[in-house]
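User: Predict the structure for this protein chain, please.
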Amino acid sequence: MKQLLNYCKSCTIEQVGEVKCSIAGLIRVSENYSVRIETKELSRELYQQMEHNDNDIIYLKTVDQHLTIMGYWVIDRHTRGIEDVVYSITCEAKKSFWGNQYCSIEKNCFEDFTVQVTEGVELIGLTPYGELDIKDTLFHMPSEIYIDTNIKRIGKDDGFSCFVAPIVQRIGTDIQLGIQYGIQYIVNCSHECILSISDIEEKIHILILLLEILCGERISTTRIQVRQKEEIYKYLGEPMLLKERLNTFDREHFDSCGYVRRKIFKLSDFHQDIDKVISQFGELYIEDRVAFEAYQQLMMDEELQIFTVNNFLKAMQMVEGIERLEDRQKIDKEFKKDKHRVMKRITDEKDREFVKKYCNNLGETFRECIEKIIKSCLLVLSEIDNFCCEDIITKIVNDRNVYTHASHKNAPLLSQADLWGLTYCFEVFFRVEVLIKLGLSKELIRKRFSYDRTFVAYYENLFGQTIKVENGGTGEYDDIMQSI
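Assistant: Here is the predicted structure, written as structure tokens:
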């Protein structure tokens, strides 16, 4: 996709909606992959159509690309002249498909798609290389070096799968080792119709959110390709959210293997069909969309290095969401059954109306949600099941009420530093709960979070606990890549 970055070429617009034409224009791709089309001389009829029908499909071509644009925003319009009026429009594409021929835009028209993301190799967690023995080779390089490589893949023939392959390049007298990778989705023809672009965007959204849970950082797509029959198209659209760099990375190491972090969970950690894992995660997301959206907002604020009490409140929103998922319908059904049984015993009509009006199931209280997530995560991370945390819970509940309800006159009990630390801890607790629900082992969860030095420090300072870690590594990828 990098070859399209800052792309700028003249083009010919051949069709807008149902109207065939031949109009000269200019197409630009900005540094954040937004696609802009500038037209200089439009007929009045076409000008009016483009101005009012922004869901039309546009077909245009350059010297090396055929573009199919699916919807656009008109961002500028201009007319000049009095008698012979010249009309021009500048618009920005909502979705665009780049290929050797035009894309057929129908309701369902794609067989598969491939995605690349920031830190993609590390998040997949597979390496095509064996361990390299590089000791004593700096000044005594042997004449021949054997590099053990092979293509690795996880997943089935349909649904989501991942692959990594070695890239060995000779540049002058240097040899450079790299990794080519992709996260692919292939339609199961016996169970699923071919995909629409909306289906693809939804699946990519779920995938990106899962990867953000795995690494605790914002992730964005860096490349999307879709396939229609034998033709492959580069796709630029809503999921393309270019992230120039992570705050913790140097620009030269962005989206590379320059950093190998054992604290990052990987798709290969699940040791099972990743399509099943992503599907299970999608069900969790649908059940409590608000909690996961709050998590993403926190990731964005952290990347921008913004912290206010709103971050703390978002973390509390995550806690309530994830802990109130369990058996909501079952609990509500039992409550209504008990309420009906009590009302049958009441003879006074006013009492019956009172119970009917005010006796409602409010679900678990916020305090109960906090208690549940803390005790659950302490059990996973430290194997402690009888820890008393009333003091910190009381402070959390107090401050949450202070910052949420203007009617509360209590003063906050936690400092800004404590709020920051608790927010970070509850982000981790939220991730722990999700990873447990997805079937990841407690042992691996403990090992990976023990490498998160920020969490280890806050966990000990605020909860007085350490992570119980057994001996052993965090997987083949980390061990091999650390040696390269």
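Residues 263 and 448 are 4 Å apart (CA to CA).
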